[in-house]
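If your schedule permits, I should be very grateful for your opinion on a structural question. I would ask you to consider whether the tokens describe a fold that such a sequence might reasonably adopt. Thank you for your consideration; the sequence and its tokens are set out here.
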Amino acid sequence: MPGDKVFLDTNIILYAYDVSAGEKHQRAKEIILDLWNSGLAVISTQVLQEFFVTATQKIPKPLDNRFAKDIVGDLLKWEVVINDGVSVLEAIELLLQYGYSFWDSLIIEAAIKGGAEILLSEDLSHGQTIQGVTIMNPFKTSPS
């Protein structure tokens, strides 16, 4: 799927910086590098917030706050979807229709709003397509 916009869920970015994540660390680094080179990555304000908190507080070897801030600054070079009030309402509709949690529904809504064709996440239903966005778990199969 070269040329397709790809939305990254927080866990994919987090694994790229979590050296304790084993094979997922290596795969996530490859994904980040590929998207960095292609310029096709899309993220949201939610992803940036979740990344910072999790990377600095919740992984086995937390990142230094300043280093994590620098990473967030670098990620701002990608397309960033801002979650607004309409996004919240649309996420609630997705929650009602598909049964995902609110936070997962907000991720899906941001991918839709950002025009992504692919949403990479290990937490959502691999292979499901919602409003033109196909969810793929990159640790199950290679998104190509």
The beta strands are 6-8, 41-44, 79-81, 118-120, 129-130, 133-136. The domain at 6-136 is CATH 3.40.50.1010 (Rossmann fold).
